[in-house]
Every structure is written in C-alpha cells, then in structure tokens.
Amino acid sequence: MSYSDWQLLAIALGGVLFLVALIVSRVRLHPLLALMVTSVVVGLLTGMPQEALVKSITAGAGNTLGAVGIVVALGAMLGKILADTGVTEGISNTIIRKTSTRMLPWAMAGVAFVIGIPMFFEVGLVVLLPLVFSVARKLEETASIRGSAYVYIGVPVIAALAAMHGMVPPHPGLLTAIAALNTSIGATMLYGFIAAVPAIVLGGPIYGALITPRMGVKPDQALIDQFAVTSAGNDAPASTPPGLGLSLLTALLPAFLMLFHAIAELVFPEGSRAVQITGFLGSPAIAMLIGVLFAAWILVHARRGDSEKLRNSLSASVKPIANVLLIIAGGGAFQHVLTDAKVGDAIVHLSQQFSLSPLLLGWFIAMLLSVSTGSATVGIVGAAGLLAPLAGAGPVNAPLLALAIGCGSLFFNYANHAGFWLVKESFGMSMGEATMTISVIQSIVSVIGLIMVLLMNLLPPLI
C-alpha cells in the first residue's frame, strides 16, 4: 500500500468519528447538517476539487432520494391508508391473538423473512413499519414486557430484512456478484436460505430479547399515530375493517409484485417479455405506487369513503417523514463523497496485503468496502470484481464465495449508510441506540453468515 492509501483510510475513519462527535457532543448538530459538514471536510481533506466535491454531494443526495426517498414517501402514504382503514389494526390483532408474547418476535421475523426475499432492506422496512408499530403499540398497552416494545418487535424485523438483503438473490448486489463469478443463482439461493436462518435467529429474536430490557426506545408520537391507530378513541377507524384476506393482499401487494419479478427472472430467459413486464411492475417505486393506488381504491373509493379526507390524510402522511428523508439524503451525500474520493480503491489495496482463503478474503474485502463507503453494493461489486479470477481458476465453491461476499457487505451498517438513518429516525433512537440495534444486528448477521459459509464449505456442493 502507498502512503496516499493510508492517508485516505485515516481521513475516512476520522470523518466517521468527526460525524459522530458533531451529533452526540455538546454541539448537538442536526444529523443533516452534521452529514453535510462532514462530507465537505472529508472531500477537501482528500484533495477533491471544489467543483467535483459539490457535484459529488448533490449527486449522492439526489441518487439516494431517487432510490429511497420516493419509496419511503409512498410507503408512508400506504401505511397511513392501512392505519386509517383499520387494516394494520386487524392484522396486528390477529398476530397478537394467535401468538404469545414470547413468540411475537419469532412471528415478526417470519413475516420479514418472506417480505425480504424480493425487497431491499429500506423498502421492506418501510412496508413493515405500520405492522411493527401497530403490534408494538398494542404490546406496550398490555405492559407485558420490560423495556421497549418497539425494540422487541423491531429487532427481529431488521435482522430478517438485513439477512435476506445480503444473502439471498434476487437482490441486485448478489446478482452482480453471481454474474461476476459466473456461478449459479439457484445454488447461491439455497446456500443463502440455509445461512440466513441461524443468522436471523441469533441477530433477531435472541439478541432482541437481550437488549429490550435495557432500552426505552419509542418513536415520535406523530409516526406512531400515523401508522398505528388505537382500538378505541378518536383515532379509531370509522368503518368496519376489511377481512383478513383483503387486508393481507392490500398490505403485501408491493411485496408480491417484487416477488413475481424475482420468480420471473429465475424461470424465464433474460430479456423475455415476462421479465420486462414483471421488472417494471416489480421495481420498488412502481410497486409501491400500485400498492398505494390499490389501497386507496379498494379500501376507500370502493367503500364510498370520503375522497377529500383521503387526500388530506395522504398529504399529512408525508409530514412526519420529511426529517427522515432529508437525513437519508445527507447520508447518501457522505457515501458518494467517500466513493468519489477513491476510499474503496485504498481498501482493495489493503486487502491485497493479506493471505487468506478466497471465502475469508471475499468477506473481508466486501466488509471493508461497505463499512468505508457506506454502500453494501459497492462492497459486493468491488469484492466480486477482485476475486472473479479466483472463481474461474481454482477449486473454489463459487456460490459460497458469492454468499461470503454478500455476508461481508452487511457488517456494521453505520452513519454513512442510508439504512442506519432510516432505522434511527423511524424509531426515534439516539446514535448509541441505533448502533446497538441496526449496527450490531447486521454485524451478528454478517458473522453468523460467514460461519455458515465456512461450515457449508466442508460439505459436498449442493449443486
């Protein structure tokens, strides 16, 4: 490694520490301001031209809002419709009625496991937030657990969504790794499902049970009121809630559309009409748009609801998440500056100094790239590109190598990741509380995934 590589790594590490200090010290800067200031400082210290730095910040914020912001806004609208019409109330009542308090985290992990197959982490969380808040609010009212009900219910969901995002195709990062390594989607998917189960169990219900009594997390009341109505009082739904089947269809329609696209990619040839159609309908923004329109029609207009009230409700639904969206944009700006400053290249050069097995090396490179740049996709693409020659030249289990890379990209999701800020702001957490949840959860999932990869490598190949 050159001196400039070490300098870049030191600046990146110092930038993260500086960001945390701005937020948690006496300065107490708003996270958006802290992220913007840190992005500027890091960019200047790495020697980026001023014009390029400005473009990098705006491109990072814009790209993140384009990929995540619209989906989050549509998810807030869908969640508001589901809450106002009693859908989340009915589903949460069913889950609580048929599941003991002790088994609730396991049930929620199971729901997130299914939802997470076709969805990005952030999209899946947005889709499930109404259900998480509704179940947690009811659990909080019963006072049947010690600590935060929102942590008790939310941690298993975060663990399951993270595991599916990094371990199971058809998520784009893993598909990119599979293509670069020229390996099998089916084998990688089978290995991914096997590795995901223990990772979800340990990072979800078990870890959640350990930290719940120690945390008093409660989301902003405006978000709770938006996503979870009470069973009695002024905010209760005025009409009879729809049946469970229609409720599930309406709540999960975006997930179904994304899942259909995932299945079509496995069944039909690349570029076929079926793949094109499902790809359009199953893209996150279009799937969420269809979900909102379907919910508005089937739950309000078809039941002769008040259209003016619906429009006002949808307008109000976006207000509580404005802060979340801006902070996510700031995280995207910081991530883009780190990437443009070539911190990822320095990480690759560092990884070449170590003599490790391909599986460990793939996990290690993806982990370093993801942690330093704030992008799991950058981690996967960089590691897969670097190790592609190994997959074709030696006795390496290529599907397991793709899975190891995916697991590495999950490690320690922190302040330069958009998902970190989505969890922190949605649940109303401090920096420390967010670190104890999403950062530690994803680290557990990542390490358990690696252990499962190494264990499965001792067995004959599945395919």
UniProtKB/TrEMBL annotation:
It comes from Paenirhodobacter populi. It comes from the Bacteria. Signal peptide: none annotated. It is a multi-pass membrane protein. Belongs to the GntP permease family. GO terms for molecular function: gluconate transmembrane transporter activity. The chain crosses the membrane at residues 6-25, 32-49, 61-83, 104-129, 149-168, 189-210, 244-268, 280-300, 320-338, 359-388, 400-423, 435-459. This is Gluconate transporter. It holds the Pfam family GntP_permease. GO terms for cellular component: plasma membrane. It is found in: Cell membrane.
